[in-house]
Amino acid sequence: MAVVGWLETEDILDRWPDAPDDPELSAILTAAHEQCDAFAPARVEGAPPTESMKLAQLLQAQHLWARKRAGNGEGFGPEGYMVQTYPLVMESRALLRAKHGNPFRGLL
Q: Where are the domains of the chain?
């Protein structure tokens, strides 16, 4: 059982059943871990990763994989020219650092 970042191989397959069978998947998971680790708040050395950290790494890896497959994400859709976006990055960051402040800011 190999460990890539905060996730074990079996854990990845359980959480991402349609994960690509690609030789670059390990590199994508490693890059996702590096991005998440740089963004995550400091923690005690040797402390096990939380479930939200594991999920954040997985979401970041899915985002990187989707961007790799989609290229620049530009194309023509039913409404004309469009650019696809993948909001998984913001989700993974929210899992690593909870936003504090006024929850109603920007609603009025």
A: 3-96
